[in-house]
Specification:
By secondary structure, the chain is of the alpha+beta class. It is built from 24 helices and 28 strands.
């Protein structure tokens, strides 16, 4: 059904917008000129014999979310900005003195606290502060280790002195005198909690160590007479900028413990807790990847999962085993840029290093001996089990995790060294020297021209072995969204895919796609292809020439996604896009990109390494978020995420709120490992410790309630049919842009908490103050509502 020519409105734009204003106040003021007559109204739902689709379309209305929540994104960002802006609190450790006492020492720390430059006056124990901790730890230069930690100076012993803002903290029973040792004393304070840590939809789970504060201050004192033996001799092989790439700057572990503290080398403050002779407390990290089924069933551990809670172990294990690190752990350069020679040195080829990322057995997670079928608990982004690697290499009989790897893997033996097994770079992203493939292998759109219904695109590649795919999508009503995305199938039976007829406006050179013609002179590396826009046999909308003629479509987006496999590895490459304006018949720049971008893909890559390897197996979809929209468009319901649109903003918000993929498959499998992993996944938080740092992805000023003149309505997928949960049947629904964008986060929180009543209330609110209407199977409601709403902005 061609819905665009059949839908009529009951009121013109002026009347519709005035009616919206009347919700809040009367329309006072001077009478304006008579407006242009509106279209004839559609039959109301109460009319005898009313068409149910027309009645549903009639419920579509402009969202009024911006009336009350127009600056909601600014408020989210402001909360996060309070976290990272300069602290009004300042802690300064002034001196340390120790008195021997029966073989131990009573250590006294003098410190000062100011707020806004004035003395911070508090009572004993500093009850006015939300965080206050003080530690001392000894450094041993000969082994480059921090030892005898866990020496906490109890803040409850702090008492004010006669000098306002100064305090003394005396702690008996300490194992050494820090001021006469190679040692450090470190402290931190914080106040002004920014987010709630309670309630089922809180970002922060009960018992978490993560807390964000308005004001945080860290300080330290370093001791030791010789420069080559005191704590300043310590040098981490990691970089704080590596942490900041995902966790934000400045980097505070748990939200308040700084990695960079005045007077100490980078990460030295972290050693106050993660000293080198401390036993680790999270043996479940290795257990969950070494024996997933036993872990999920809560069976007592039978293997030895003990470890030392060094910075290497806790960082590697947490990112490789517990948290969903969005990169390969083999991309060591993320944290160790310019220091790979240190971390990949032969001396580090030890069982402890290997076990910090790899499980030993990985029972059920990897192929059995000689069997290439994946195990039932396989996860693609996990570091493979050592037993699997040994078996695949045919050396399992001579390997033991108890052995010293350096006995064989050294410069004097023929077996691979650590640097030969790990270049330090993800092999999909960069070569062994660190040169990124997306900088070596590129594509470009060289020319776009139109003649009638024919759109001709010339594009090229830096290497003729690159296999490009051409995608053409069409924007609706000068918005940032595609009304007819390239991934939409038409009714042409000449194209067959997975048993379904229909062609897509997607073409790889050599394809047999009747929509496209490869022109004379087109060759590998320099292609010329023509799309016949009239040949696309649209199902839900008018045909494309008609959409262009009536002004519903005025721009197309051309995308080239490159693919290249090198040495059996599909590389992560960048797509390129070009907007074409049909009114002026020329290519235009910066249409919701460039200077007008909504999302900065460099920010995506700072955490993901290369988007094309995080999603879709490196098939050339990195570098340009506009390229993602060819498939991630509002007119498609979510295919892996329930009660979501596949539009990019809905997907990204839901994913980063840790709404799980394919929850119906998890439920249907009735598998304890899948269930345990799913429960764990839902407990995670965006790596800035809160998703409210909108500028972690967005360009400034692009994250408030969406402008409906720039965003078309869309469709949300139905709820999965899952037994034994509160949320029941929720049908596919048509809704507005704020419901998708803002709802991507808020619905995810509600769904994860299984709050059926709150979900119903949220959806009802979207319907009251905007559009939330059940969609019909033929999508006629969706495209009818799109037409009804968007024509009001013409």
């Amino acid at each position: 059904m061609k819905v665009f020519n059949s839908i009529t409105l009951g009121a013109g734009p002026t009347l519709a917008l005035c009616a919206l204003v009347l919700v809040m106040s009367a329309c006072d003021g001077q009478d304006g000129k008579d407006g242009q007559d509106g279209r004839d109204g559609a039959p109301g739902s109460s009319a005898p014999g009313a068409d149910p689709i027309q009645s549903a379309i009639g419920k579509g209305q402009i969202e009024s979310c911006a009336t009350c929540h127009g600056n909601a994104g600014d408020r989210h960002q402001a909360r996060y900005d309070n976290y990272i802006d300069p602290s009004t609190l300042e802690l300064r450790l002034l001196s340390v003195s120790s008195v021997p006492s029966g073989g131990d020492f009573t250590v006294t720390l003098r410190f000062r606290i100011t707020k806004n430059g004035q003395p911070f006056v508090d009572s004993a124990g500093l009850p006015s502060l939300d965080q206050k901790r003080f530690y001392m730890v000894r450094y041993e230069a000969a082994t480059d280790q921090y030892l005898q930690g866990n020496s906490r100076l109890r803040e409850s012993n702090a008492v004010p002195t006669t000098t306002p803002g100064e305090y003394l903290l005396s702690q008996p029973g300490m194992p050494f005198a820090p001021e006469s040792s190679d040692a450090q004393v470190y402290g931190y304070i914080a106040s002004g909690a920014l987010f709630e840590h309670a309630g089922p939809t809180s970002e922060f789970q009960d018992g978490t160590h993560v807390h964000l504060y308005d004001n945080v201050s860290n300080d330290a004192l370093a001791f030791g007479a010789a420069a080559d033996t005191n704590v300043n001799a310590y040098s981490s092989s990691a970089n704080v900028t590596g942490c900041e790439s995902c966790h934000g700057a400045p980097y505070y572990k748990h939200g308040y413990r700084a990695a960079q503290v005045a007077g100490l080398p980078d990460f030295a403050a972290c050693k106050s807790c993660h000293f080198d002779d401390r036993n680790g407390r999270h043996t479940d990290w290795q257990y969950m990847v070494d024996d997933p089924l036993a872990w999920a069933n809560g069976v007592a551990e039978t293997a030895d999962y003990s470890y030392k809670a060094t910075l290497m172990n806790v960082t590697h294990m947490a990112h490789a085993m517990e948290f969903p690190f969005p990169q390969s752990m083999a991309n060591c350069a993320t944290c160790h840029a310019d220091k790979l020679d240190q971390v990949l040195a032969d001396e580090n080829f030890t069982a402890e290093t290997c076990k910090s990322c790899h499980p030993v057995q990985g029972i059920g997670a990897w192929p059995e001996l000689g069997d290439q079928a994946e195990g039932p608990y396989y996860q693609a982004h996990r570091a493979p089990a050592l037993q699997y690697l040994w078996t695949r290499a045919g050396v399992e009989s001579v390997h033991s995790i108890e052995a010293d790897c350096r006995t064989c893997h050294s410069a004097t033996t023929p077996v691979p060294r650590l640097r030969e097994l790990h270049s330090g770079f993800d092999k999909r992203i960069a070569d062994a020297s660190g040169q990124r493939y997306d900088e070596i292998y590129t594509v470009s759109i060289d020319e776009v021209s139109r003649s009638g219904n024919l759109l001709t695109i010339a594009f090229s590649a830096s290497d003729p072995d690159i296999a490009p795919e051409l995608l053409v999508s069409f924007y609706g009503w000068d918005t940032k969204h595609f009304l007819v995305p390239s991934h939409t199938r038409d009714s042409n039976p000449a194209c067959q895919s997975r048993g379904r007829p229909g062609c897509r406006m997607e073409y790889e050179p050599g394809d047999d796609n009747p929509l496209f013609t490869e022109n004379a002179g087109s060759t590998a590396g320099a292609w010329s292809v023509t799309l016949d826009m009239a040949a696309f046999q649209a199902i839900e909308t008018d045909d494309i020439p008609t959409l262009i003629a009536n002004g519903d479509v005025s721009r197309a987006e051309i995308t080239i996604t490159p693919q290249l496999t090198l040495n059996g590895v599909r590389l992560g490459l960048d797509a390129v896009t070009q907007t074409f304006d049909f009114n002026d018949n020329l290519a235009v720049d910066d249409y919701f990109k460039g200077d007008n971008k909504v999302v900065d893909t460099d920010k995506c890559d700072s955490c993901h390494g290369q988007l094309a390897v995080s999603f879709h197996s490196g098939s050339g979809r990195g570098g340009d978020i506009v390229a993602c929209k060819n498939c991630h468009a509002p007119v498609y319901p979510g295919s892996h995420i329930e009660m979501a649109s596949r539009s990019i903003e809905n997907y990204v918000h839901a994913i980063h709120s840790f709404q799980p993929f394919d929850l119906d498959d998890v439920a249907a499998a009735n598998d304890p490992v899948s269930s345990a992993r799913n429960a764990q996944h839902q407990q995670h938080t965006f790596p800035n410790f809160t998703i409210r740092n909108c500028e972690a992805c967005h360009a400034p000023g692009t994250y408030n309630v969406p402008d409906q003149a720039q965003s078309i309505p869309g469709v949300l997928s139905a709820a999965y049919d899952i037994a034994d949960r509160n949320i029941g049947s929720v049908p596919e629904a048509v809704t507005g842009p704020a419901s998708r964008a803002c709802g991507g986060c808020h619905r995810a929180d509600i769904i994860n908490a299984d709050l059926a009543g709150e979900l119903a209330s949220f959806n009802a609110k979207m319907g009251t103050f905007g559009t939330y209407v059940d969609n019909d199977p033929a999508d006629e409601t969706l495209f009818g509502i799109i037409d009804r709403i968007m024509t009001q902005f013409e």
